[in-house]
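Example record

One chain of 419 residues, shown exactly as stored in the release files.
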Amino acid sequence: MKVQLLMPPVHHYAGVHYRLNPGLALPILAAILEAAGHRTEVWDLEAMAATPAGLRAAYAGHRDKWPDAVGITCTTHNRRGVGDVIASLREIGFDRRIVLGGPHATVDPESVLALGADAVVTGECEGNVGAIFEGTERGVIAGKALPIEQIPGPLWARQEPKPARYAGNLPKVGHPEGIAMWSRGCPHGCIFCGNPVFGHQRIRRRPPARIVEDMAALKALGVQSVFVYDDELVGTGARGDAWLTEACEAVAPLGLTWKCQGRCTAKLTRDVLDAMHRAGCRAIMWGVESFSDAVLQAIHKDTTEADVWHTLRLAKDAGIGNWLFLMVGNYRETETELAYTERRLAEATRAGLVQWRQVTVCTPEPGTRLWELAREGGWLVEPPDTGPQMNQVYAPTPWLSAPLLRRWKVRLENAGVGA
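Predicted structure tokens for this chain:
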């Protein structure tokens, strides 16, 4: 059978075209389906700047090429696009199987099912994706995970656009940029985390040989730098360090540059950072959020200000640049805590410990503890259907007004810059 996998559009609602990096889920599912004998196509409609109306026109003009089934990824910020894509297909008579999956489908499957799909899959589904598309089961279907060593690399040959055609995200450590998965899972309980698929799970690590295959495949496509898009790659303790060091030694001969995400922790060692640098790692994106221990405790970050300073200094000494993720509007955060973060951020910047930063607005997302707290406290405001809300200030918190949130976002973006 022929299966088309779609990433829905956001740009014509948000007014911003998002084309940073391709998703990993759909090309991986394509690899599994092709191994089972099916033909696949992966269309990133957002990166292609394709609207639901454009998709409808493309289908209407090529009825003889319709797939036997369509799979769509549904996230919280693209759910409007999901509904419009399904409506567009149904309007022209597409009566074949449509299956939805993804983070928002996992959090709220019944509302996603109401968008017009035949079935909604929750959680990871590499273990039963073939049966889901081959079968006729309707309604909500629980996905089945595969052992991580059995998950294939993404089938980039079926992806449109190709990885090298994406813009890549900051910080830039090489171009063209691709994306890869080395591990899955995050055992921590940050109350704002909107990752219902891999969150609150033990970390599962891919065999280094499979990692090398994925990185080499990207290099063969013209990619020169890679974003290792894992939740908890570095700083996970001795067992994780041993695995990461082995993976770095295996990847180093490829000569690629790469960046990753990490958690500030006293567990981090200079040895593993040195191994990462030798393998081409040039930036780590640290989820700092705040320098205030009171805020870090309130959001259940499982890290402290001391962890932040330890981490930033070690990375700098290893020659790896530090990118800081920071947020305003955290749970129970007042101007007092923000002023403290501003002072400490400026100090770290002047000391050469901060090369890049991103300041976003802490936003309650469905499925998170923060969403529940906001709802229980009577201060939940439903987010607008205009794309990623983390860059918008659309609601106050009980501790900060919307104007103050905007003001502090700008202040943290400029703390210590040019000093």
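Notes: The first helix runs from residue 11 to 14.
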